[in-house]
Amino acid sequence: MLKPTDFPEPTIIPVNGVELEVFEAGRENEGKPIVLCHGWPEHAFSWRHLMPTLSAAGYHVIAPNQRGYGNSSRPTEVTDYDIEHLSGDLVALLDHYGYEDATFIGHDWGAFVVWGLALLHPGRVNKVINLSLPYQVRGERPWIEAMEEFLGGDFYFVHFNRQPGVADAVFDENAFQFLRNLYRKNVPPAPPEPGMAMINLARAETPRGEPVMSDSELAVYVSAFVSSGFTGGINWYRNLDRNWRLLADVDPIIRQPALMIYGDQDRAIPRAENLTEFVPHVEVVGLDCGHWIQEEMPEEINQVISRWLEQQDATVRS
User: Fold this and answer.
1) Coil, strand or helix: which one is 107?
2) Mean of pLDDT values over 2-15
């Protein structure tokens, strides 16, 4: 297991009007970039198990803390966190290194950004690997509006948008408790509680299930969010309906080779039934874990991703 003290030292890189805190491995593998995009409420540290494997396989591994996270910039305007800004940061990061394109790996919200990047800047993405969150089809109604009707005002996506600042303050006040209670596996089913589930989780004194990481690893996340606060990351949610509008005239088909990895025990995110309609060149893999795939099954995720990348390289060579 990679200890927190073994994680690479970051570099602060100016891109797209902000600064990103970027962690790298395999710099000697210049010319073969792979960019890792974390989710919420995560950190580039979530890729600590994958980075050594990818660098040993010959990749220049680039893992930014995206805007709003860690020591990266945290703009105050909510609209500065829409898909154009988030994908624009990644394009500018490629420009910084002099790369025309790269393979992108995303988890959770990072997967949403990678899907969006492939739509908005298809020439900059040569392969897509996403964990947990499948491609989100742009339906007839804005996403938050539809969620509010079907899931109610207390669903956390909706709550973040309709009651700005409320959840942020609770998470900031209970950063350790919230992250400790969130990063769990094998959580037994329980009937839904009244109120917003994430706020309830942040206030719960006793965690359920089992931890997905060690205390020292969790401390990296807690320290980062105590410093940054949670608002920057939550602002990504506050742009969902704006993103829906921004993607209105974009070709919705992902044409790059893609790998979609699900946690089969992930109760939060169902599999997409029509994935191949929008991602025709996709391979789908399910692992026996929950939402925090890289934390729960690091060896297995390394094997799945390495195998798929080797197959893609072999196809190109042939």
Assistant:
1) strand
2) 85
> Is residue 96 flagged as an active site residue?
no
Q: If you write DSSP's letter for every residue of 145-207 in order, what string do you get?
A: HHHHHHH-TTSHHHHHHHSTTHHHHHHHHTHHHHHHHHSEESPPP-PPPSS-HHHHHHH-SS-
Q: Is the pLDDT of residue 317 over 80?
A: no
Distance, C-alpha 155 to centroid of its chain: 20
Report pLDDT digits (tens) over 179-231.
Answer: 999 999 999 888 888 899 999 999 999 999 999 999 999 999 999 999 999 99
Q: Which of 108, 154, 168, 266 is catalytic?
A: 108
d(CA 45, CA 62): 12
Report the interhelical angle of 83-97 vs 109-120 (nearest 10°): 70
User: Is the dihedral angle over the CA atoms 39, 140, 152, 232 positive or is it negative?
Assistant: positive
Given 38, 60, 159, 291, the catalytic residue? 291
What's the chain's length in residues? 318
Q: Which residues 6+ apart lie within 8 Å of 40 measured at CB?
A: 108, 109, 233, 234, 236, 237
> What pLDDT score does 6 carry?
80
DSSP 46: G
Closest listed residue to residue 49, CA positions, set 306, 301, 223:
301
Is position 43 annotated as part of the catalytic site?
no
Split at pLDDT 50, 70, 90, the class of 267 is confident
Q: Are 69 and 43 in contact (CB under 8 A)?
A: yes
The owner of tokens 């974390």 is: 38
List, in sequence order, every residue forming a beta bridge with 207; answer none if it has no partner: none
Task: Please give the single-letter amino acid code of residue 75.
Answer: P
The DSSP string of 122-136 is: GGGEEEEEEES----
Question: If you search the block for the tokens 């790059």, which residue do you land on?
Answer: 256
Whole-prediction pTM:
0.97
State yes or no: pLDDT of 4 exceeds 70. no
